Structures are given as structure tokens and as C-alpha cells.
Amino acid sequence: MSLINTRQAYGWIAIALHWVSAVGVITLYLLGEQMEEATTRPDQIAAQATHVSVGLLFITFLATRLFWSFSQPHPESLERNLWLRRLGTAVHVVFLLMVLALIVSGPLTVLSTGRPLAVFDWFAIPNPFGRVGWLHEAGEVVHKAAAKLFWPLIALHVGGALKHLVVDRDRTLVRMLWARS
Q1: Which of 181, 157, 129 is closest to 9 using CA atoms?
Q2: Phi, psi at residue 117, to the nearest 5°?
Q3: Of 19, 55, 80, 134, which sees the most CB atoms within 10 A?
Q4: Domain assignments of the chain as residue spans, ordered by start
Q5: What residues pair up with 131 in beta bridges, in sequence order?
Q6: Helix, strand, or coil (residue 10)
Q7: Is the model's pLDDT at 94 over the cut of 80?
Q8: Which pLDDT tens digit goes with each residue over 36-57?
Q9: Arithmetic mean of pLDDT, 159-163
């Protein structure tokens, strides 16, 4: 079984990165929603601290996912319809760009308040530049806009996977569930 991708199949590394990323991004999204829904200031601060801490722990993993995705060959699409194949490629690219925007804008939004990036009570990354109001506002806008893309992209992604499974009955979904020998 291959660790790396080929033109016929995904390798174990890509499959593991895909599924762990999916769980992590969903977790971070839900933590972000919890932060937005908090009704008291102490609850907001606690939810934000958890979101930031989990995000910082996960950021290296997501960056690895981005690097791996762009450095590996992708298996040839089994989609016969040119427009659906292009849509699938566009959804994947937008997903990766969304993740990149989130992992850049999230830390910048916190750092631009003048605070360090704290990871639970374990350690903190010092703030290199202090409070920068315009950067904080821009970071929040980018972070929230990228997060709003989340559910429509999930719907398109899952819908495409189900189409391949139920309608086309091809190996598209199977290729992302386990690597072939």
C-alpha cells in the first residue's frame, strides 16, 4: 500500500490528512460558533481561548495538509462530465484557499489586538508587533468570510461524493477511504 499519491489512487498520507483535517476543521468551526453564541463576556473569552488554542495546535497539521495537497499528484478524475469535473476541482481549490485564509487570518486577528497567542495554559507565542487596529478589523473580516464558505463547500463536496457513490457508482469515494495496493 502506497504512502504517496499516484495518478490512479490516493496514498495513505493524503487519506489520513484529509480525514483528520475534516474532523479538525469541523471542530474549529463549531468552536467558532460557540464563541459567537456565547451570551456573557466571560463565556466569550473562554470560548475564544479554546478556539484559538485548538486552532494553533491544529495549524501545523493544516499547513502540512496544504503543502501535501499541492506537492502530490492527484488521481485522475473519474468524472466524465467536463463541467462537473471543473466544479469538483474548483470546490477543492476553494476549500484549500479557505483553510489557508483561516490559518493566516486567525492568528493575525488575535496578534493585532496586542495579545500573545496563548495555547491553553501550556505556552504562549509572544506578540511581535503590538496593537494594529486596521489589521485586526481586516483579519476578522477575512476570517468570518472564509468561515461562511464552510457549509456551502461541505454541501457541494458531500453532494459530489454521494453522486459518485449512488449515481455513477464509480471508485471516487472509495479512493479517499482506503489506499489501493
Answers
A1: 181
A2: -90, 105
A3: 55
A4: 12-177
A5: 113
A6: coil
A7: yes
A8: 999 999 999 999 999 999 999 9
A9: 90
